[in-house]
């Protein structure tokens, strides 16, 4: 999830992260049938008799009366452009297919000639079907100027019940006034910084501008120890998409000596199978740092925390 | 403050994966049922509040923008309130305020999630600060298990006590036609189930569900047409900063704050005696034990004894989660509103096979985030 | 409304995190208000998980909001909708003082992706529909369906940029001014880049108080006299081309509650717009001009002052934009900024792709 890449933009550091999320989306009858029949080079719409409206693409519920439509209809491949815009990603248009009472949003290809509002266009099919709205590749100028077609009942239609989907969202998170220094010190000096609240005198890790409880500006960074106590832990066996560690491992919340807040990390350095017996709440732990050459200014510069041997074990 | 009543509720038959409806189609089913229950149509609804889990659950940002047509709410006020797992209650509270302030006479609250569609633990893990801790996150399960382990030492919330919660809720879900997990389990089954984030084991964890719930709230005058309204006697939703100094991880302060405010509003001084039935949102069994204490159903440290006594079973003196709670179905964004709907059905005497006899005053709890968002409501058959 | 504050709206607050913007603006709104954080009963916040790159992002910012151990809710919509929630909470007596805040840092993410994720995933998303192409399509519809021409849309944008040049809360780009509108790149014809709402980083906060508290704090409190909101259909093809029906419904709702005949009954209007074309459509929906004649509202000597701040085209802090309008309008009514003695104002906010959702407040001193 976090690749820890530090770059420089406008002299202010950012952390680049990517959320890369897989989905299986359920289409519902209207979208599922529309996408399926595009593969058969058929454009489906839906007809609401109450509102006397045919809309394309079809809808499971009439946007006017809210009721389920009466039937699917097949629309002709020709229509008239009602609105368009050209951007650096191509031309998008609203197209009133013949026999429809609402527009279809789609792409226009201007290769065959100029298109403006009012121009007659026809559909062009993609060479290969991918179960997407792009199986209808685009609309182009209808040079033959075919007479307007009409909608008719679609008869039997197929259904694509679910389609895969992927979200890729990229971020450049600012380090801000506190995290920049925090991670610089972590990587360069193995120092962990907190913010001292001038009112309650508690030290807050990670450092922050405001004390959460007092709502006053903190002002001052102070060092805290890399030793602390294990406030809570669990043993992770669960595997999941997007996980950055391989189970089994320990999820740990640690309160560093000199601080009043939770630090989330892992405890290691022993056989995880013995964790339930080996670890106890409130036990002392200490940071095991990575080699300075491997430190990149993230929480992972601390490789893990380890139980501090009790005197009788030393 | 002006009285507000629940005059209609509806929920879907929850399931692991609904392949026959889209996200918005699922929400529509619950809306249709709530309107039928209230004897209303969308034309009677003045305003809509939508609740879902985080956007990353379902790949659709601000999903109410897509939902509006599916529920026939075009040109009405529609707004989405989000608050993690407790969003359904946070949304209901927004609706209650709309009615009380005269912004609307009848508000539809619709809450849903279609968790079969996304990568659940991954998306929940993005709750964590990308700089600080996200790489260690296991949804919210790693965190929840860690503090359960801590509460074992301090409060005696043992694995056996949590297993009793699982056994009870699984058993109750058998009586709930909307639940999608209907399978009785034994204490031994729970204790020997596969550890996911020890001490949390498979049978401490609710299912992953597709489901929706809708509730219609009405002003006193608009509720006159309803024969059996469930009156909102108190409702509040509190938060705490997730990493404030010395945050109490053993007893939830926002839950205590919400409960005391709601009890004051509802005139409740002894919740165990005065409430007839309780629904709580237990994302893991261990949380139900915490809520017993946070809601004042027993003293701190008394939860294990309370569940072992059978008092919170359907036949006990303070039944908790007669519906089966999250253990029967857990469409996260809808779960809190399902608890509210269930408690309303109890005081309306319409809960069916899991009805608590003569229930008049119902208590519900919900929440989300890092256990730092906590809400409570009291609902009654009496306007008060 | 007893106090309001905003940060400077700028290209990138690259040295601050969201949490710093939030904490800063909450401090600012309290300063001089006569209230402190302990007086605040409820916090309503508006931001976007998708812009923040973080789920339930409010959950991580509660301390900076001053919300610790208070009632709090996230309205994941433009901040003006958050103000509706806060107002109902105060109006019914459930809170004495409510804090509403809204923020965005679009500089940290891809704004086109943010808008693309707003589309339902089957019909629109694969086509690459985003805020720029939507603005172009709506402008084309407006020009096709009304008497307005491209010149009118340029005039509206030039006026917005000229007003923005006098707004100290919009960081100025020395090389950009009203004269650059007509020569900026044609990015979604008929619209040029300076005619489309420009994403900015920023935050805004407003304090709402019950009548007794407001009278104690101020001899010139700004009263909320009406609120309304309405959401249109999701698909652009199901909305009325060239007009904003939902804006009209929201405005009617607010004005009828306020006892106003139409928007010409107010002195000052602050509106949100995704482009100079939708800005014309908004003022027309408010009843300030006939359909196709929105540009007339910007003529010298117009009866109602529209967007003295410059509006959203030069500076659009996405989730905060509508609440900035409320802040601007109320600060002018209270005499904190601007000239003249306006006594009634209207603020408008919008959310969604192509302004699917609209919200209107009416205010009075």
Describe the model.
The complex is a heterotrimer of chains A (314), B (384) and C (365). Chain A has 314 residues and is mainly β. Chain A folds into 3 domains: 41 residues, no CATH class; 132 residues, no CATH class; 139 residues, no CATH class. By secondary structure, chain B is of the alpha/beta class. Chain B has 2 domains: 134 residues, Peroxisomal Thiolase, Chain A, domain 1 (3-Layer(aba) Sandwich); 227 residues, Peroxisomal Thiolase, Chain A, domain 1 (3-Layer(aba) Sandwich), CATH 3.40.47.10. In chain B, the strands form 2 sheets. Chain B has a 9-stranded mixed β-sheet with strand order 3-2-4-7-1-8-11-10-9. Chain C is an alpha/beta fold and 365 residues long. Chain C folds into 2 domains: 125 residues, 3-Layer(aba) Sandwich (Peroxisomal Thiolase, Chain A, domain 1), CATH 3.40.47.10; 229 residues, Peroxisomal Thiolase, Chain A, domain 1, CATH 3.40.47. Chain C contains 10 helices and 12 strands. Chain C starts with a strand and ends with a strand. The mean pLDDT of chain C is 96. Chains in contact: A-B, A-C, B-C. Chains A and B meet through strand 2, helix 1, strand 12, strand 14 and strand 16 of A and helix 1, helix 4, helix 5 and strand 5 of B. Strand 3 of chain B pairs antiparallel with strand 3 of chain C, so a sheet runs across the interface.
The CATH top-level class label of the largest domain in chain B: Alpha Beta
Strand neighbour order, sheet with most strands of chain A = 6-7-8-10-9
Measured by residues with Cβ under 8 Å of the partner chain's Cβ, the largest interface is: A-B, 72 and 66 residues
What would you call the quaternary organization? heterotrimer
Number of domains of chain B: 2
Succession of helices and strands of chain B: EHEHEHEHHHHEEEEHHEHHHEE
Fraction of residues in helix of chain B = 25-40%
From the spread of the alpha carbons, the general shape of chain A counts as: elongated
Q: Roughly what fraction of the amino acids of chain B lie in strands? A: 15-25%
Span of the ends, CA to CA of chain B? 11 Å
Q: What is the fourth-level CATH superfamily of the largest domain in chain B?
A: Thiolase/Chalcone synthase
Give the uncertain stretches of chain B in residue-range form. none
Number-wise, the strands of chain B total 11
Work out the helicity level of chain A. Answer: under 10%
Number of domains of chain A: 3
Amino- and carboxy-terminal Cα gap of chain A: 39 Å
Helix tally of chain B equals 12
User: Which class do the helix and strand fractions of chain B yield?
Assistant: alpha/beta
Largest sheet of chain A: 5 strands, mixed, barrel
Please state the structural category of chain A: mainly beta
């Amino acid at each position: 999830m976090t690749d820890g890449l530090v770059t420089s933009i406008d002299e202010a550091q950012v952390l680049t992260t990517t959320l890369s999320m897989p989905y299986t989306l359920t289409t519902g009858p209207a979208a599922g049938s529309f996408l399926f029949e595009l593969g058969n080079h058929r454009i489906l719409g839906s007809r609401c008799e109450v509102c006397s409206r045919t809309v394309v693409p079809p809808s499971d519920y009439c946007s006017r009366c809210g009721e389920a439509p009466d039937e699917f209809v097949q629309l002709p491949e020709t229509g008239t452009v009602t609105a368009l815009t050209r951007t650096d990603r191509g031309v998008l248009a609203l197209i009133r297919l013949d026999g429809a009472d609402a527009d279809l949003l789609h792409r226009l290809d201007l290769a065959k000639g100029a298109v403006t509002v009012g121009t007659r266009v026809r559909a062009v099919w993609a060479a290969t079907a991918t179960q997407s709205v792009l199986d209808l590749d685009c609309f182009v100028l209808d040079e033959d100027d075919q007479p307007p077609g009409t909608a008719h009942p679609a008869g039997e239609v197929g259904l694509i019940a679910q389609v895969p989907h992927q979200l890729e969202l990229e971020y450049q998170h600012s380090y801000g006034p506190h995290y920049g220094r925090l991670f610089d010190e972590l990587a360069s000096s193995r120092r962990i910084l907190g913010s001292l609240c001038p009112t309650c005198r508690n030290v807050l890790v990670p450092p922050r501008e405001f004390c959460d409880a007092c709502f006053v500006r903190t002002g001052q960074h102070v060092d805290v120890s890399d030793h602390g106590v294990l406030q809570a832990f669990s043993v992770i066996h669960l595997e999941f998409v997007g996980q950055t560690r391989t189970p089994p491992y320990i999820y740990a919340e640690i309160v560093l000596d000199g601080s009043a807040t939770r630090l989330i990390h892992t405890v290691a350095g022993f056989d995880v199978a013995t964790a339930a017996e080996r670890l106890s709440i409130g036990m002392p732990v200490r940071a095991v740092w990575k080699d300075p050459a491997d430190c990149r200014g993230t929480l992972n510069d601390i490789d893990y925390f380890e139980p501090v041997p009790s005197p009788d074990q030393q | 403050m002006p009285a507000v009543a629940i005059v209609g509720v509806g929920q879907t038959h929850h399931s692991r994966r609904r392949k026959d409806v889209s996200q918005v189609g699922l929400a529509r089913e619950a809306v249709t049922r709530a309107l039928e229950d209230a004897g209303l149509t969308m034309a009677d609804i003045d305003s809509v509040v939508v609740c879902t889990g985080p956007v990353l659950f379902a790949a659709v940002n601000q999903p109410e923008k897509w939902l509006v047509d599916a529920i026939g709410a075009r040109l009405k006020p529609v707004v989405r309130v989000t608050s993690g797992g407790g969003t359904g209650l946070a949304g209901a509270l927004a609706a209650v305020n709309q009615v009380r302030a005269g912004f609307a006479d009848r508000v539809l609250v619709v809450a849903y999630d279609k968790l079969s569609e996304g990568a659940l633990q991954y998306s929940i893990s993005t709750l964590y600060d990308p700089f600080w801790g996200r790489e260690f996150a296991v949804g919210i399960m790693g965190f929840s298990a860690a503090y359960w382990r801590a509460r074992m030492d301090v409060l005696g919330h043992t694995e056996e006590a949590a297993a009793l919660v699982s056994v009870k809720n699984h058993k109750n879900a058998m009586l709930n036609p909307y639940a999608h997990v209907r399978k009785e389990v034994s204490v031994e089954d729970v204790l020997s189930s596969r550890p996911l984030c020890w001490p949390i084991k498979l049978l401490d964890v609710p299912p992953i569900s597709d489901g929706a719930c809708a509730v219609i709230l009405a002003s006193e005058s608009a509720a006159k047409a309803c024969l059996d309204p469930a009156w909102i006697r108190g409702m509040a939703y509190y938060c705490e900063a997730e990493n404030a100094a010395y945050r109490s991880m053993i007893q939830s302060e926002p839950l205590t704050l919400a409960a005391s405010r709601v009890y004051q509003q509802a005139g409740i001084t002894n919740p165990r005696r005065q409430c007839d039935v309780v629904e709580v949102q237990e994302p893991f069994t261990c949380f139900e034990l915490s809520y017993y204490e946070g809601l004042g159903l027993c003293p701190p440290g008394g939860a294990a004894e309370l569940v072992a006594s059978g008092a919170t079973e359907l036949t006990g003196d303070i039944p908790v989660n007669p519906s089966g709670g999250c253990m029967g179905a857990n469409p996260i964004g809808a779960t809190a509103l399902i608890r509210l709907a269930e408690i309303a059905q109890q005081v309306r005497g319409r809960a069916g096979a899991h009805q608590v006899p003569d229930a008049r005053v119902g208590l519900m709890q919900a929440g989300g985030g890092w256990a730092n968002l906590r809400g409570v409501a009291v609902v009654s058959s009496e306007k008060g | 409304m007893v106090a309001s504050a905003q940060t400077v709206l700028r290209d990138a607050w690259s040295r601050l995190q969201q949490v710093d913007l939030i904490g800063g603006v909450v401090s600012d709104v309290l300063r001089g208000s006569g209230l402190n954080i302990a007086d605040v009963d409820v916090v309503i916040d508006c931001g976007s998980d998708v812009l923040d790159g973080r789920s339930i992002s409010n959950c991580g910012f509660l301390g900076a909001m001053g919300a610790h151990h208070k009632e709090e809710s996230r309205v994941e919509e433009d901040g003006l909708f958050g103000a509706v929630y806060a107002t109902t909470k105060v109006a019914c007596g459930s809170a004495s003082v409510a804090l509403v805040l809204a923020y965005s840092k679009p500089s940290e993410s891809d704004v086109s992706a943010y808008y693309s994720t707003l589309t339902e995933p089957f019909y629109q998303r694969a086509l690459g529909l985003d805020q720029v192409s939507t603005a172009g399509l709506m402008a084309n519809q407006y020009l096709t369906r009304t008497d307005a021409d491209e010149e009118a849309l340029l005039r509206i944008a030039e006026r917005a940029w000229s007003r923005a040049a006098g707004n100290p809360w919009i960081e100025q780009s020395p090389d950009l001014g009203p004269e650059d509108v007509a020569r900026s790149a044609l990015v979604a014809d008929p619209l040029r880049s300076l005619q489309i709402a420009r994403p900015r980083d920023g935050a805004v906060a407003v304090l709402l108080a019950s009548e007794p508290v407001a009278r104690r704090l101020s001899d010139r409190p700004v009263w909320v006299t009406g609120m309304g909101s309405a959401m249109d259909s999701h698909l652009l093809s199901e909305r009325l081309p060239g007009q904003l029906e939902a804006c009209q419904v929201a405005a009617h709702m607010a004005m009828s509650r306020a006892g106003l005949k139409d928007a010409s009954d107010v002195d000052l209007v602050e509106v949100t717009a995704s482009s100079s074309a939708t800005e014309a459509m908004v003022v027309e929906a408010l009843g300030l001009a006939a359909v196709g004649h929105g540009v007339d509202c910007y003529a010298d000597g117009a009866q109602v002052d529209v967007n003295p701040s410059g509006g959203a085209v030069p500076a659009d802090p996405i989730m905060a934009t509508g609440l900035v309008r409320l802040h601007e309008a109320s600060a002018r009514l209270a005499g904190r900024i601007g000239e003249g003695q306006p006594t009634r104002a209207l603020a408008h906010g919008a959310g969604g792709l192509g302004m699917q959702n609209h919200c209107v407040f009416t205010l009075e001193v």
